[in-house]
């Protein structure tokens, strides 16, 4: 695994432990009581929300009567779950809940997003990102600059050589082309950058125009992440809030967001017309 961080092995380890617990007929409450843990620790481990140290794996596999072979598999995943990606060195500007997203983002081979609040971070210029952070927080100028640099550094995944670049399919609401993040000059440069991004073969940008009317994306911005077959990982939906994020992977949740994405695709301009639309809007700034 090439610098994809800890999120994928953590998620895999959590699923394996949940399956082991279910197979043993033990509830999460019973397991927590047996180990002297709070139930929330079991939940965080099984949902991949936190890394699992070797001693905890040994305790879990003993209580759940795992085979020697299964114990070794889980210990190997535990070791992987503590891998550090390049972004871990930015811990002072990246909260735990977003560190997990960056790890998933690095591992994904397809990223689909609908943006209605601000342009996706992977497409933002530094000036646009700066305007977003200044509007959304009271952080110092130094903190904002470090956050902006992290956002710009994340964009390298769209042009990286190894592992192969992910497919990035974006639908942006027309309102984002007309909202003055940072002022007219910032917006002109940002829209010009959007057009340059469309030159990449792995990036598709489509515009959902006002004329589309009512649509299924009224719940707001979200990201759908897909992973290489080698990971054997189900898709994941990421929905960000002001102080945390939701990671959704239940079948009904995925089906709901797939429906939303299909509806938005139906109503959005095709890539060529979207590029023309962005170019025309840029001239209005």
TrEMBL record:
Q: Which residues form a coiled coil?
A: none
Matching entries from SUPFAM superfamilies are given as: lambda repressor-like DNA-binding domains
Gene3D superfamilies associated with the record: lambda repressor-like DNA-binding domains (1.10.260.40)
Question: Where in the sequence is the signal peptide annotated?
Answer: none
- List, for all copies, the residue spans of the domain called HTH cro/C1-type: 17-70
One Pfam family of this chain: DUF5753
**What GO MF annotations does this protein's record show?**
DNA binding
Q: What is this protein called?
A: Transcriptional regulator
Source organism (scientific name): Actinocatenispora thailandica
